[in-house]
Each structure stands twice: as structure tokens, then as C-alpha cells.
Amino acid sequence: RVLLGKLDKRAKLYLILHLKCALPSFPVLSCSSGIQADDDLKSMFVGTVMRKIKSRTWKKQRYFRLQEDCMTIWYKSKKAGNAHSTFSVGDVEAVREGHQSEVLLSIADEFPPDRCFTLVFRGRRGNLDLVAESAAEAQSWIKGIRKLIDNLENMGQREKLDQWICDWFKKADKNRDGQMNFKEVRNLLKMMNVDMNEHHALRLFTMADKSQSGTLEDDEFVLFYKMLTQREDVLRVFQEYSSDGQKLMLQDLKDFLREEQLHEDGVQQYALKLIERYEPSDTAKMLQAMTFDGFLMYLSSSEGSIFNPNMVDLYQDMTQPLCHYFISSSHNTYLLEDQIRGHSSVEGYIRALKRGCRCVEVDCWDGPNGEPIVYHGHTFTSKIFFKDVVTVLGNYAFKASQYPVILSIENHCSVEQQKVMAQHLTQILGDKLLKSPLDGKIPIGLPSPEDLKGKILLKGKKIEVSDEEDTAEIDDDHHRNDSIRHRVKKSKQRLSKELSDCVVYCKSVHFSSFKHSQIHSKFYEISSFTESKTRKHIREAEFVLHNARQLSRVYPSGLRTDSSNFNPQDMWNAGCQIVALNFQTAGVEMDLNDGLFSQNGHCGYILKPTFMRNTDERFDPENPQNRDGYKPLSLSVQVISGQQLPKVNIKEGSIIDPLVRVEIHGVPLDQAKQETRYIDNNGFNPVWHDTLQFTIHVPELALVRFVVEDYDKTSKNDFVGQFTLPFICIQPGYRHIHLLSKDGTSIPPSSLFVHVRITKLM
Fold first, then answer.
1. Which among 470, 484, 351, 337 is positioned nearest to 412, based on CA atoms?
2. DSSP structural state of residue 631
3. Distance, CA of 526 to CA of 458 (rounded, Å)
4. DSSP states of 518-538 as a string?
5. Alpha-carbon span 688 to 470, nearest angstrom
6. Phi and psi for 577 in degrees, rounded to 5?
7. Beta strand pairing status for 525-530 and 551-555?
8. End-to-end Cα distance, the chain
9. Which is the catalytic residue, given 18, 99, 324, 331?
10. Rounded to whole angstroms, how far apart are CA atoms 677 and 658?
11. Which H helix or E strand runs over 506?
């Protein structure tokens, strides 16, 4: 009561929303406890004047303040009148202290590091660089935002849903009085993608308005929200297995887990664990039962997700040779935009490495004052220093994964600057740089990711007896567009011994033919292929065998000046390990890459199927039915419903017409896509109950992509959300699919509810 007395009416409503719902959205740092107990959040609520920095010459003061919902940061210029900007704490991935961005490094002589910090946003959004007036103020914001991020990451699906509705309430409460009249409720429904006729909306409003005041406040709004979000689709499943229609007794839950979710071993123990973990009612727990709220919370959790939680963490054998793994790989990692005029930045390396990328690329050229530079040569892309790339590599290589990073060097430097490159690599990376074979022994095969934990491997040319490989490598690995770049003549490039000595297990060589490779190639040699050459080789069955013995790298065509990507699935089908993509470009290609590497602890290494590792087998992706152990499967997906799909058109009153497309990406025989019908004007809780059927011939290589689009009969459909996962990671039964944005970031609480069945065909 004392606390409520200190809050204004709107803050009271937010607090009560959190307290009245089944679970509080901020169990540790809700608006209430934050105001009362946390000094950093108190300071953020009051607000702070800080400098927003864009360059050495663009440094402007802005007033920043944390809003009452503990989720939104508001800021404005003193000169901008009423104009202001906001961003959500949920969009912030990390906070970096000090001069840890190129922008802040550029003004390091002007502002000390203890006043500087960088907000790093999810996806491909640019950083926000800030300078506080004092070190103490900087620390308040650094620590405060980190607490809020940690709190968000510990939220369950139900808590995220509560937070989502609070955010919408704030947007709809136009006069900011902490109450909602019927007009505001109608506007809220439109903003939430709900096309509800006025009579039904008024009926729900009147039922919730217990005080008959003509407005909704406090628990009345919570009641309205709960009526609005009633999950009839889940309730139908619940009641099908409930003995009394009110709860699932232990035996009921066991029946559901066996018959629908296809759990076989330890079902009773698993059912008890679910009750303990997700059932909010202590009374139900004592009865070893699960109420509808608990059932919904289970289905909305990671255990109710379509992605098998046992495959999210590291589960594969990591002791096989490097060539037996698909390796998450980036092309021209330094570029944030296109290949012609794009901005080069060390941020490209930071973003790729934090996403689990294990092979990054540098194009090195002679730079000023004897310092090698990195940029896309013979173009107008900006330049960065090689030593800064190496520093970032040393700092970020093993934050997302402990498994080895391959630094692929395209070397255009003079011998003198190659020596400088070798010096930077050795001095900055230290023991992380692998400069000799493991254990000092003469190697007889490629080491494993486990053997190479914490190591950075250099991919490049080595000084050898033959000069032919060096000259050919220059020509083969030069992905140039002749119309915009100078043609590079074949000529011997002199190599420095110091840089050559840094190459151990990834010696770049020119590829002649599969026959030549089988006779002459060494296990530590790696060849690079353009996407077009790779497509030609894919038609040859020997490509899979070649990739069972040694590494191959595939990179985009030089014609892709817009940094677009090719479909990596075709290359994985042939066993190519290092399929380098432009990480800065969102789209289906990066969705597939993210989907494949979302398993096995996001470690950047995925063990290839046995038939692609065994040199005694001959797997042909064009004719998979000819392989030993061929066992096709049937996939049935019933798309039941969608929940709180995001708006794609910011135009007021616009509501989406959603459809769901399920795509199978794999060997050519498996490539398929099917769609549900579209639902008119309902992005809030559309219901389809449409069943889609597929045959999967090589499940070990298949990826399944769920796409939601806004149907448009006159133009191309708009993208709404997607989720991609390996076929082998699918959990059968009733499952939720938590959708991702085009950038690959989560968009809670947007989801699909599906029923999945996988059966043998032979």
C-alpha cells in the first residue's frame, strides 16, 4: 500500500498488471522493486544527459530516461521540441564498456573510457555510442541496462506475453491516464492485429468493466486481456485428455505424453517434472495434477517447442577430423553492406563471431605507414587496419564457442607488409594462434574440433617447392567482377616465410580435378570454389568423396555486388564444409545457415552424416534412394493456429491476412513447399487447421522452414516471421514454433501452434 501510494495512476496499472497475471513479468526487478531497491534503476528513471556519438565531428547531447514499464528507453534533443525517440531494452543484446567501438576509439583522446559505453542491438541494427557526463553516471546506465537484459533473458513465455500486453497498453493509452475507454480499446485491437466486430468488442469490454465506470483499469484490463487471449485450440486438446475437464491427473498427462508427444521412456518421471516446473497452482501440485494454465505454460515453453531441447546443447561427437563437419562461415566478413561502396568495420567480425561463425575472411592490401589494411580491393569500400581485425579476433573468437576459428586470408600484400601481418598475428593472438602441428608430431590427418579448442588457424598459401600452386591460387581465389574491378594477371606472388609459417592445417591450393586431387592432394590442403564452379562439380559424385578427405570452401560470385547470397543447401548436399555467406544480408539463405547451426550448442560445427564421412560409401545427392540404409520418412504438419503475429504495415488500421508456408530444403528430391489458406484480417489469433504432407528422402540433410506471410492478391506477399530448424531436431506432437524476424531475432510472443507426425515409409 505504501508503494502504491507513491506511484502515479499509470505506473500503478503496470504494476497491477504484473501482479494480477499468473506470473509477474519482473520477478526480481519489476517497476516496483526497481524503484524501491535499485539505485542504478532509480538513476535511469530520473534521466541523464549524455552525448550521442556518430563520428569525430557528430557529437550531440540527448536526454535519456528509462520509462515506467522498465522496458523502454526514451530520449530526445533539447532543441527538437516534442520530437523524441525510443527503443526497447529487449532489442539490446549487450553493453560494452569503454572505447570498444570504432566510433568511440576515434574520440578516445577527447573522452576517457570510464565515461563511454556502447549499446549493441540485436540483428543488423547499428550500435548506439554514448558518453556520460561522469564515470558514475556511465556505470549506472551500464549496470542498470545489464540487469534489465538479464531479467528479460530469464523470463518464461508467459512472462514475455504479459510484458507484450503491457507494451501495447502503453501505446493505446493515448491520454496517459492509466485507464482505457472503449475508443482506446478499439484502437488497441487494431494495433494488435485484431479485426473484431464492434458488437463483440463492446460485449467483452462490458463484461470486463465490473465497476461499470465506462473505462477499464487495474484488474479489469487484465480480465479483458485474458478473455481476449483465451486459447480455445489448446483448451480443446486439454479437455480431450482431462478426465473431468478441469485438470489433467497424472495418468491423463502420461496418456497425452505417450499418445501425442510420443514420449516412450520414463514417462511418469517426466510428467511429474512438468507438473513441478510449469504448474502454478500449489493445490494441483499436491494432487500431482496439471491445470489448463500449467498445460499452456508447458506447451509454450522450450520443452513444448518444436525444437528438441536435447539437441539445442552440444550433443555431437566433436573428435572427428575437421573435414567431417559443416563449419559456419562468413564471406568478406569486414563488410557491413554491399561489395562496392559498403562500409568496412571490425563490427562485422564481432557480429559474425558472436553468432557462432567459425571461419572469417580478410582481404589484405598494402596500407599507409607500413600497416596492412583490409578492404574489398579495387572498389570504393572503406578501409580498416589488419591489426584491428586481429585484435577483435583475439577478443571475440571464443565468446560464443570454444571450437577453432579459421582465418581465411586473401593476401595481396608485399613481402614487407606480410611480415607485419605475421608479427601482428603472433604478438596479438599469442598462444591462440596455431603455428605448429599439435603435440609437435608429424601429422597424419586433420585434427578434430575438440583437439583444436581455443585455437585460431590460418588459411592461406605456403612456400613450397612448386610455384604453380601459388599463382593458380591467386587466380582461383580472386572473386572479382571484371566489369568493375581490374583483371589480375597470373603471376608469381612472393610470400614471406613468417606468414607462410603461420599456415599449418589449411594450406590453400588450386583445384585441378577430382582425379588429380585423389592422387596428389594432402589432407591439410584446402581448395576454394566459386558458387558457379561448385554447381558444376555437384553433378559429379566424386565431390562428396573429395569432401570426406579434405576441406572445401565455397564463396559467392563476384557478380553479387549487392552482398546477396546463394542457397547453401546445394553445397552442403555435396559435403562442402566451409560455405561462406554474406552474414550482413538477411534472407532465406541466412535463415538456412542459422537453422543448420542452431543445434549442437550453436558451436559452429555440425557433424556430417555418416554416409558423407565414409570414403567407402558413394552418396549421390541426385539419387539418394541408391544409398545403403535408405529409409524415407513422411512428415505431416497440421498448422493449427497463430498467436500475436507482428504487423508488417505500419499504416493505422492495417491488419494482416496471414498464411503459413512450410518449406523443405535438402537434396533435390526433397525440395518442396506447401501453404495453408490465408485468413482474412486476423494477425492476433488466426486459426487454420490445415494439414501439409511431405516425403523426406534424406532426413539427415533436410531443413524445415516455417514462414508466415501477409497475403496480397495484387503484389508480392509481405514477410511476417519465420523459423528454420534441422529435420532431425523436430519434436513430434503438439508444438509451438516461436517465430523470428527477418534479422533472425526473436519477436515474442509471436508463435505458431502445430501438430507434427513423422512416420516411416519403408
1. 470
2. -
3. 12
4. HHH--TTEEEEEEHHHHHHHH
5. 59
6. -85, -50
7. parallel
8. 67
9. 331
10. 8
11. strand 506-508
Residue type, 343: H
Amino acid in position 450: E
Q: Which amino acid is at 69?
A: D
Q: Given CA atoms 220, 223, 225, 228 in this order, what sign does their dihedral have?
A: negative
Q: What is the pLDDT of residues 29-61, one digit of tens each?
A: 345 444 446 889 999 999 999 999 999 899 999
Q: What CA–CA distance (Å, rounded) separates 309 from 346?
A: 33
State the Rg of the chain over Cα: 28
- Distance of alpha carbon 69 from alpha carbon 130, whole angstroms: 22
pLDDT on residue 157: 59
pTM for the model stands at 0.85
Sign of the torsion angle spanned by Cα atoms 505, 507, 508, 511 = negative
**C-alpha cell at position 689:** 487447421
Other Cβ atoms less than 10 A from the Cβ of 10: the count is 18
DSSP character string of 369-419: GG--EES-TTS----EEHHHHHHHHHHHTTTS-SS-EEEEEEE---HHHHH
State the amino acid at position 439 in one-letter form: D
HSE (side-chain half, CA atoms, 13 Å) at 690? 16
Q: How far apart are CA 446 and CA 387, in angstroms?
A: 28
Phi, psi (5° rounding) for residue 679?
A: -110, 125
Report how far residue 499's alpha carbon sits from residue 746's, in angstroms, rounded to the nearest whole number.
42
Is residue 636 a contact partner of residue 693, using CB atoms and an 8 Å limit?
yes
376 in active site: yes
CA 615 to chain centre: 34
**One-letter amino acid of 444:** I
Identify whether 200 is a catalytic site residue: no
* Beta pairing class for 59-66 and 48-53: antiparallel
Residue 199 burial (C-beta neighbours within 10 Å; 0-12, 13-18, 19+): exposed
pLDDT digits (tens, 9 = 90+) for 239-295: 999 999 999 999 999 999 999 999 999 999 999 999 999 998 999 999 999 999 899
Yes or no: say if 563 and 585 are a contact pair by the CB < 8 Å rule.
yes
Q: How far apart are CA 201 and CA 505, in angstroms?
A: 67
SS3 223: helix
Dmax over Cα atoms in the chain, in whole Å? 91
For residue 626, what is its C-alpha cell?
A: 541408391
CA pair distance 39, 145, nearest whole angstrom: 12
Q: What is the DSSP letter of 672?
A: E
Which member of 18, 99, 324, 376 is catalytic?
A: 376
Grid coordinates belonging to 650? 505500419
Instruction: Round the average pLDDT of the chain to a whole number and report it.
Output: 88
Burial of 335 (C-beta count, 10 Å sphere; 0-12/13-18/19+): buried
**Distance between CA atoms of 685 and 700, rounded to whole angstroms?**
34
> Three-state DSSP class for 484?
coil
Nearest of 406, 429, 324 to residue 358 by alpha carbon: 406
Q: How far is CA 596 from CA 235, 456, 493, 728, in A?
A: 33, 23, 38, 10
Which three cell numbers, joined as nine digits, stand for 72? Answer: 523502454
